[in-house]
Specification:
Length: 106
């Protein structure tokens, strides 16, 4: 395969040339890794299906199934208890005070 070029778009997106996608069997939704090689080069690798659990670290699986969640919501509604209390208001006010003092550097 010949060397091919692609332009980096405004949001950092790079289009993998079609011939290369076909040769490497890339498809929409595939996860890839970028490994830097110095300041001007990097290696792009397609993750294998076996790698996906480690590749999607940070994704928390749901605690309840959809059906379990609906049952919980039905029980809460049937209980006729208030969904938001003055205690919740006080707690939210405390959180807002804490949050305004923090400076996030993302």
């Amino acid at each position: 395969m010949n060397i091919q070029t692609s332009k980096v778009q405004a949001r950092g997106q790079i289009t993998i040339p079609q011939a290369l996608r076909e040769e490497m069997d890339f498809a929409e939704g595939n996860l890839v890794t970028f490994q830097p090689l110095g300041r001007a080069s990097f290696v792009v690798s397609k993750l294998k299906t076996d790698d996906l659990p480690t590749a999607t670290h940070g994704v928390t699986p749901p605690r309840y199934s959809r059906e379990e969640h609906l049952e919980i919501v039905k029980k809460i509604i049937a209980s006729k208890k208030p969904l938001w209390t003055e205690e919740d208001d006080r707690h939210l006010a405390r959180l807002k005070k804490i949050d305004t003092r923090k400076k996030y550097d993302w």
